[in-house]
Automatic annotation (TrEMBL), chain A:
Pathway: Porphyrin-containing compound metabolism. Its EC number is 4.1.1.111. Involved in heme d1 biosynthesis. Catalyzes the decarboxylation of siroheme into didecarboxysiroheme. Keywords: Lyase. This is siroheme decarboxylase. Pfam families: AsnC_trans_reg2, NirdL-like_HTH. InterPro entries: AsnC_trans_reg2, HTH-Siroheme_Decarb, NirdL-like_HTH, WH-like_DNA-bd_sf. Residues 67-138 form the Siroheme decarboxylase AsnC-like ligand binding domain. It comes from Thalassotalea fonticola. Probably forms a complex composed of NirD, NirL, NirG and NirH. All proteins are required for the total conversion of siroheme to didecarboxysiroheme. It catalyses: siroheme + 2 H(+) = 12,18-didecarboxysiroheme + 2 CO2.
Automatic annotation (TrEMBL), chain B:
It comes from Thalassotalea fonticola. It comes from the Bacteria. Residues 77-165 form the Siroheme decarboxylase AsnC-like ligand binding domain. Residues 25-67 form the Siroheme decarboxylase NirL-like HTH domain. It is an enzyme of class 4 (lyase). This is siroheme decarboxylase. Pfam families: AsnC_trans_reg2, NirdL-like_HTH. It catalyses: siroheme + 2 H(+) = 12,18-didecarboxysiroheme + 2 CO2. The keyword Phosphoprotein does not apply. Involved in heme d1 biosynthesis. Catalyzes the decarboxylation of siroheme into didecarboxysiroheme. The keyword Lyase applies. InterPro entries: AsnC_trans_reg2 (IPR040523), HTH-Siroheme_Decarb (IPR050684), NirdL-like_HTH (IPR053953). Belongs to the Ahb/Nir family. Pathway: Porphyrin-containing compound metabolism.
């Protein structure tokens, strides 16, 4: 990755202009050509560094219901419980984390009722308690990873 | 409310038909084409003008439905492999102040207030740090805590060992299939 790749990646992470020629606008800012911006971004897509360009939706304003949940899963049952939890299409992310509460997953549904139904189902199928940590207040969201 | 309903509610202020709005919503979710005039390319796809597409997207941004039009990077591929959730047990009266300090720190990528579940879980402020390795994340957190009001707060770092499932939000499809 050369210096221009890094500049383009850092600039485009912050957002792509909604204008007639957005890549030309970025090129002007970075002192390169529109063609360079497009080619380098295409290259990064081909390499798998980027998965896509697109909108970051505010999920809540689209009407969804979300929560972060956690479970304390005995080590010997981890694979089995992972299978139970991941079988729900409403489970978006599932991470094993280092803590007594070692399984953390995000549940995304259309309604609060559906969230509660999914969590209860997971409890019944696993015979383990599900801790529910819904978002009460959002202070900051800004995934920016400088390269 | 589904995405479709939300879009339909806003058609009065927009020039695109409800069908075109849904098509636009689905098209941009797939990703912006990497061509000189990407909004024109999408407009041609859905039978609209470039101006209509741009003004509709701008409207969605103003409404807050789209936070940002950017790119989705695979952070692991860029070397950001240490994904840490840092949780804090903050006095209820100080949550806003502490969150404001955390939100200013460059390394913090998310900061949410969530409920305690006592007695098992006393932590009420959750944030994420994406770092290149665990030692770096620990150092960044230590540095952060040295020169601020964060020093005395009870906290824990939960590193992820493994991602067992990861999928991005697919809103137009999720709504269409009723998932």
């Amino acid at each position: 990755m050369d210096a221009l790749d890094k500049k383009i990646l850092n600039r485009t992470q912050r957002g792509i202009p909604v204008s007639e020629q957005p890549f030309a606008d970025i090129a002007n800012e970075l002192d390169c050509t529109e063609e360079q911006v497009i080619n380098k971004l295409q290259h990064m897509l081909d390499d798998g560094l980027l998965s896509r360009f697109g909108p970051m939706y505010d999920a809540a304003s689209l009407g969804g219901a979300f929560t972060l949940s956690a479970m304390q899963v005995p080590e010997e049952r981890f694979d089995e419980v992972t299978e139970i939890v991941n079988a729900f299409s409403q489970v978006a992310h599932n991470y094993k984390r280092q803590h007594r509460l070692n399984m953390w997953f995000v549940v995304a549904c259309e309604s609060q009722d559906e969230i509660q139904a999914v969590l209860q189902n997971i409890e019944q199928q696993s015979s383990l308690r599900v801790y529910d940590f819904p978002k009460e207040e959002e202070f900051y969201v800004g995934l920016y990873l400088p390269v | 409310m589904t995405a479709q309903q939300l879009l339909a509610d806003n058609i009065d202020s927009l020039q695109l038909s409800p069908e075109q709005q849904l098509e636009l919503f689905a098209a941009i979710e797939q990703g912006l084409p990497l061509v000189a005039q990407p909004y024109l390319a999408i407009a041609e796809e859905i039978g609209a003008t470039e101006e209509q597409v741009i003004s509709t997207i701008e409207h969605w941004q103003e409404q807050g439905m789209i936070r940002r039009f950017g790119l989705v990077i695979r952070h692991r591929k860029l070397g950001y492999v240490a994904n840490a959730m840092v949780v804090w047990n903050v006095d209820d009266a100080c949550v806003d102040d502490v969150a404001a300090i955390l939100a200013q720190k460059k390394v913090i990528t998310l900061c949410y207030r969530r409920p305690r579940v006592l007695p098992d879980w006393p932590y009420n402020l959750f944030c994420m740090i994406h770092g290149k390795d665990r030692a770096q994340v620990i150092k960044q957190l230590d540095d952060m805590c040295q020169h601020s009001e964060l020093a005395g707060i009870d906290k824990k770092i939960l590193f992820s060992n493994k991602a067992y499932k990861q999928r991005g939000g697919k809103y137009s499809q999720a709504s269409a299939s009723g998932n």
